[in-house]
Amino acid sequence: MPIGFGIKAKFSNRFLFGIEWSQRKTWTDYIDDVSTTYASSGRQRGNSKVNDYYSFAGATLTIRLGSKLNSCWHPNNN
């Protein structure tokens, strides 16, 4: 289940910048493998009743190339 947000800003006809952050629930507890016990100490490493989450953040810079900035290329365009 993804939860997140992001924003994109256009600085000119050629440059766009975006940032985003997202967190996802995995519905499993096997991603990090910390819900079992250490073999050497016998102590619990995590909580097996809580499922794992992971998150990521990213930034993008888009640079439009070419001289025709307001048109899209398509094979059927003449």
Question: How does this structure look, described?
Answer:
The chain has one domain. The protein has a three-stranded antiparallel sheet with strand order 1-2-3, with no helix packed on it. The mean pLDDT is 79. The chain is rod-shaped. The protein contains no helices and three strands. With 78 residues, the protein is mainly beta. The two termini are 44 Å apart.
How are the elements arranged and paired?
Layout: E1 2-10, E2 15-25, E3 53-63
Gyration radius, in Å: 22 Å
Q: How many β-strand runs?
A: 3
Low-confidence stretches: none
In what order do the strands lie side by side in the largest sheet?
1-2-3
Roughly what percent helix? Answer: under 10%
Beta fraction of the residues? 35-45%
The dominant shape is rod-shaped
Measure the end-to-end span: 44 Å
Q: Write down the overall mean pLDDT.
A: 79
Order of helices and strands: EEE
**How many structural domains in the coordinates?**
1
Based on secondary structure, the structural category is mainly beta
Largest sheet: 3 strands, antiparallel
Tell me the quaternary state. Answer: single chain
Number of DSSP helical runs: 0
In short:
The chain is mainly beta and 78 residues long. The protein is built from no helices and 3 strands. The model has no long low-confidence stretch (mean pLDDT 79).
Labels describing this entry:
three-stranded antiparallel sheet, rod-shaped, single chain, 78 residues, mainly beta
